[in-house]
Each structure stands twice: as C-alpha cells, then as structure tokens.
Amino acid sequence: MEIIKSIKNIFITFKLNSRLTQDTYTLYMNYLAVTYALFLPISWQARSTIFVVILFLFLIRRNYIYYIKLSFANHIVKAFLFYVLIHFIWLLGTDNFAHAKKMIKLAEYAIIPFIFLTFLTKEFGYKVITAFISSVLFSEILSYLIKFHFLPPQLTLYDHTIYKAVAIHDPSPYLLHMHYTVTLSIVIAILTLHLFSSKYSLKSKILSTIFIATATINLTLIAGRSGYVSYVVLLFTIVLIKFKQKVFLPLVGTIIFISMVAYGAYSYSKTFKDRIDYSINNIESMYNNPTAFDSSLGIRVGLWHYSIEAVKDDLIFGLGTGDQMDAVRALMPQQHQLLKTMHHLHNQYIEMLTQFGIIGLLVFLNIFYQIFTYKQTEKENKEIMILVTMAVMIALMTETFSSIYYLPMFATLVAASIAKNKFSTDINSQNIKQSLIAYSVIIILTLLAIYLQ
Predict the structure, then answer these.
(1) What is the distance between the alpha carbons of residues 200 and 207, in angstroms, rounded to a whole number?
(2) From start to end of 197-336, where are the E strands?
C-alpha cells in the first residue's frame, strides 16, 4: 500500500505547476521549435542542442499525462512511434548489436511529432514552416555566392566550419547535394501553393514567384538527381491537387514548362548536363551488363539485388535491427568489393523489408498512409503535408529515412502541419520586439553551445 501511495504522490506532483507556469514553458518551447526549424537545413549540432532544451522544458513543465494524451491521440504521431518501437522490438533478433544501436539512435528522430504536439500551437506551426523556408532561402543565397566566387567553397572560423560545399560546381553550403535539391523542390512546391491562395497579398506572391524562379535555377546548379525527380513530381502533384477535373490544359502547360526548364538547364548548366549524361550512361551500362555494379546506379541495383537475396527466407519478420548490411555483404562475391564499402542499402523500403520483413515495411508505409488519409487539418496544411511526403517518398527510393536530415525534416514539417492545439501562449507571443529578443537569445545560446562542443 505504501508503494501505491508513493506512486500516486509522484503523479500528483506532476500537476503542481500553475497554469501560468505551464503556459510560459509552452511558449518557450514554441519559440524553440521555430528556431529548430531555422537550423534544420543548416546545422545538425544546433538542432540537437535545441531539441535537448525542448525536452528539458517538457520535463520541468510537468502535467505529463495531460500533454501526452493530447499528442498520442493523433494517428500520425502513433504511426511515427510504431516506427521507433519496431526498431526496439526487433533487437531480439539482432546479431550486430553495435550497428543496431546506431539504427535506433537515428530512428529516434521519429519522436519529434510526439514531442512537438505536446506544445506546438497552430500559430507557431505556421512559423515553423516559414522559418524552414527562410533558412532554405539563406542557403540558396550562399549557394549563389559560392557559385559566382563571392565566397569560398568552405569557410572556417576559429577552427569551426561555418559551411562547406563540395566544390564550386556543386555549391550546396550545408546539406549533401541530394538532400539540398530535394529540400529546394519542397520549398518551391510550398511557395507554388501560395500562388493559388487568396490569403496571401500580391506582394507576397511576387516574392514567392521570384524565389521559385531563383530556387529552380539553383536546383539545376546542384548535382542532386533525386531533387530533379522530386521537382517534376511535385509540380504534377500540385496540378492534380488544384485542378482535379479540369486538369488537362494545366497538365499540358506543366509539361511544356518542365520541358523548357529541362532544355535550358541541359544547355546552360554543366552540372545538370553532366548528371543527366552520367545517368543515361549508367542505364545503358546496366542494360548491356546487368551485373555492372561499379557505377552510381549499379551500386544501388547491386545492393537491392543482394538485399532481396538475403531476406527471401525471412520475408515476414526480416533479419533483425541492424543486421541488414552484414547479411547482404556475406552474399557479395569478391569482384564486388565496392558494394561492401556501402553503409546502407540506398533504399529505405528495401532496408525496412530486410530488417523487419513485411511487418516492418507495413509499419513504415503506415506513416504515409496516415498522412494521406488525415483530415483534421486545414486544406493548405494538408496540401503541404502531401507535397513533403511525396518528395520524401521519392528521395527514399535511393536514400535512407533514418538519417540526421530526412527524418527530422519530414517529422518537423508534418508536426507543424498538424499542430492545432490551443495552448495559451498569449504571454508576450504577440509582442514583436520581445519575440525578436527571444529568438535572438536562443540563436546566440545555440551557437555558443555548438562552439563549446
């Protein structure tokens, strides 16, 4: 009885904070979420620091049961949590615990929607998306400055790297080129949605149009083929979303527009031309010799081939968390040494199937199903979610979901799109001066924390 009494007392203390105190911490967490989105495409160290602070505020705010129930009631949140859970459950079958821990550490980013929906308000959800777009705009400006030799490809200050592009011909300042081009396609698509909305002013639409144009050009200067594909698919998706039954003429117009962009990019961007030519050569090489696994495409095809071979006897339950690479490498003959150096399978769907079988693949696909069928949000937010999801689904055909970028980016934008809680964050949240001070303090402290690491 004493133990039961003690547990009861613990739960009672969870609710000791006053409503004013809870609202204050909630407001701080909302500010931090916006700052998190601002650093999302720029610095994973900053993101990590900010997220730790958010978790700290979540703990000291208390009243856990109330906030957790609000978040857990969302089906999208549950789908993300099931994705994390399956990584833990399938530890029971792993033979490579060290690699399994790495997989779990990356998969844990899927708790972002769960945490964010315990505090994120609808008002700040919009700010999160805006902060993300602003950060990509900043990256784009840097990219142009590097491309046209106003800035060096790499900038270091006091032994800390401020940014680092691969080269002048591939000027992505913060992200890997495949991540950067997919991100550009997402932002271009979101801003294209703005052009169809009546709630944005003419001035806002003109600025959006300028950014769409400059980002499209920037896209062709970066060697990220996933972004090229994503760009095309998202434009067609927007047409289907916005025009539905009267879709024929807009589709024809979109095809003409994309053809013009592609022709211009191929004619004037050496990077774009080289990547397209390289892709065509890869396809021809694979066609002539299906086991030529020494090219960019060949490496991926080789990994997928041996992955299916590795899991064919364990299709229902898979091989276990983190066991996929060991099993796949064991099947590779000596002449495919290059394949053995790969750290992941370059396809999230096959990676889920290999680790967790059909059960795990369905758990993963359930995230997308819940998003596409979600109805408890505004039309524009739903459209943003669909576009972000489409882009990520395309990217994951050649990349992995559990990374330090795709999963946090996806989870954050989805959380911002479904945030509809009406927590009281009126305390100073409408005061522009105090808001700017709050963001400035957070950013300065975050940068200081990174510098001291």
Answers:
(1) 11
(2) none
Distance from C-alpha of 59 to C-alpha of 14, rounded to nearest angstrom = 9
- Residue 293: band (very low, low, confident or very high) from pLDDT cuts 50, 70, 90: confident
pLDDT at residue number 45 = 84
DSSP at 155: E
At residue 168, what are phi and psi to the nearest 5 degrees? -60, -40
Structure tokens belonging to residue 451: 């510098």
Checking phi first, is residue 159 left (phi over 0); if not, alpha (psi -120 to 50) or beta? left
pLDDT tens-digit map of 16-29 = 678 888 888 898 89
Q: Give the Cα separation of 213 and 261 in Å (integer).
A: 10
SS3 (DSSP) at 84? helix
**Exposed / middle / buried, residue 85 (Cβ in 10 Å: 0-12, 13-18, 19+):** middle
CA 173 to the chain's CA centroid: 17
394 touches 226 (CB < 8 A): yes
User: Does residue 452 register a pLDDT over 70?
Assistant: no
Q: What tokens does 76 get? A: 């999208």
